[in-house]
Specification:
The protein is of the alpha/beta class. The chain has 2 domains: 5-116 and 354-373, Enolase-like, domain 1 (2-Layer Sandwich), CATH 3.30.390.10; 121-351, Enolase-like C-terminal domain (TIM Barrel, Alpha-Beta Barrel), CATH 3.20.20.120. It is built from 14 helices and 15 strands. It has helices spanning 60-76, 86-89, 97-115, 119-123, 142-154, 170-179, 198-202, 222-230, 244-252, 263-266, 269-281, 295-304, 354-360, 369-373; strands at residues 5-21, 24-38, 41-47, 129-131, 133-136, 159-163, 185-188, 212-213, 235-237, 258-261, 286-288, 328-329, 339-341, 351-352, 361-368. The strands form 4 sheets. The chain has a 7-stranded parallel β-sheet. It has a 4-stranded antiparallel β-sheet with strand order 3-2-1-15, sandwiched between helices. Strands 4-13 form a two-stranded antiparallel sheet. A hairpin with a 2-residue loop joins β1 and β2 (24-38). α1 (60-76) crosses α3 (97-115).
Length: 374
């Protein structure tokens, strides 16, 4: 396909309510969108990097610079036939996976539109609906957390995930379990614990959690393997898994029993599918994590979640949980059964609200292919 232009935008979008993790509190998102125009079609991608380089080495500003000065020109002077061509095009740039994913995922969207099929089908999806869970940030009080859980369960969500850290864990789990003994419950530490906390983490077994997500260092397999041997509860790795090789290494080392796949963290659909397949071949279930995406990134997560081995409820929840007004239509909604229907329209399946995007845009830059090739 011929790339006519790449338009990069930064949108400022306030969250409906603050979201707190062990990294800190997010109240507003600086959302980076990549619009790629090609032969009369438009594909969209979203960069899920945070405002600061806390979840990963990338941030909103580093991703902007890398796309404008490196990845965008590389892609604009190529003619990719498939989204899977992007890793080859970008191979000289090390890391920067979230920046790469923004562009690659837009190419997959374009390819699906060109083929006249849904993005889910192009990726190899087999589901008509995907099961949904919610991720609840650290709250000002346990009472407020319990109120939020009650609301989300009433909305039909199939799994409740609690952000945790030292000082906000055992008492919280105990209160939740006493009130709802039978719900599917998990926790996510975002690397908040250390080896000195092993005995404390082992006490989490008492709460029959579905998983403990990334309890130790963000770049570790070895100590997670040691910890998993002490636990009955499965460890789920998130930040440690950047690609298929990492997934294979973690599985071989018995560092985890579940893997969270995030599109931005692994660099886009190509590597996400490779991680999915590697885990499936070895009997390791996967699920799709969230990064406070707008509707564009959310649409991509839904399509990815339609693959066969996404057997656990993911963090792909309704638009209204995060945004007073999302930038897609229709907005993402969740049924009373806690499921999202897979869109069957060509491409990502959701229309982009161009007027709202323009209104929210704080900065914008265009890369034109003809300007690069003279």
């Amino acid at each position: 396909m011929r790339i006519d232009a790449i338009i990069l935008r930064e949108l400022h979008m306030p969250l409906v309510r603050p979201f707190e993790t062990s990294f800190g509190v997010t109240t507003n998102r600086r959302v980076l969108l990549a619009e790629i125009q090609s032969e009369g079609l438009t594909g969209w991608g979203e960069c899920t990097a945070g405002e600061r380089p806390y979840f990963s080495e990338e941030s909103t500003d580093t991703a902007w610079q890398v796309i404008v000065h490196e990845l965008g020109p590389m892609l604009a002077t190529e003619s990719p036939e498939h989204g899977g061509d992007c890793p080859r095009i970008f191979h000289h740039v090390r890391g920067n996976r979230m920046a790469k994913a923004a562009l690659e995922n837009a190419i997959w969207d374009l390819e699906a539109q060109r083929e006249g099929i849904s993005l889910s089908r192009l990726l190899g999806g087999v589901r008509e609906t995907v099961p949904c869970g919610v991720s609840l940030g650290i709250q000002p009080s346990i009472a407020e957390l319990l109120s939020n859980i009650e609301r989300e369960l009433a909305s039909g969500y199939q799994r409740i995930k609690l952000k945790c850290k030292p000082g906000w864990d055992v008492e919280v789990f105990e209160r939740v379990r006493n009130r709802w003994p039978d719900i599917t419950l998990s926790c996510d530490a975002n690397s908040a614990y250390r080896l000195r906390d092993v005995e404390h983490i082992a006490s989490f077994d008492a709460f029959e959690l579905l998983m403990i997500e990334q309890p130790l260092w963000h770049d570790d397999f070895f100590y997670h393997s040691m910890l998993q041997k002490r636990l009955q509860t499965p460890i789920c790795l998130d930040e440690s898994i950047h690609n298929r090789r990492d997934a294979l290494a973690a599985i071989e080392a018995e560092s985890c029993k579940i893997i969270n796949i995030k599109l931005g963290r692994v660099g886009g659909f190509s590597e996400a599918i490779a991680v999915h397949n590697a885990a499936q071949e070895r009997g390791i279930p996967v699920w799709c994590g969230g990064m406070l995406e707008s509707g564009i990134g959310r649409a991509h997560n839904i399509a990815l979640s339609s693959l066969e081995n996404f057997t656990l409820p993911g963090d792909v929840s309704a638009s209204a949980r995060y945004w007073a007004e999302d930038i897609i239509e229709p907005e993402v909604t969740v049924s009373r059964e806690g499921e999202i229907a897979i869109a069957d329209a060509p491409g990502r399946g959701y229309e982009v609200r161009s007027d709202l995007i323009e209104r929210l845009t704080a900065r914008k830059e265009m890369i034109r292919a003809y300007e690069l090739v003279g």
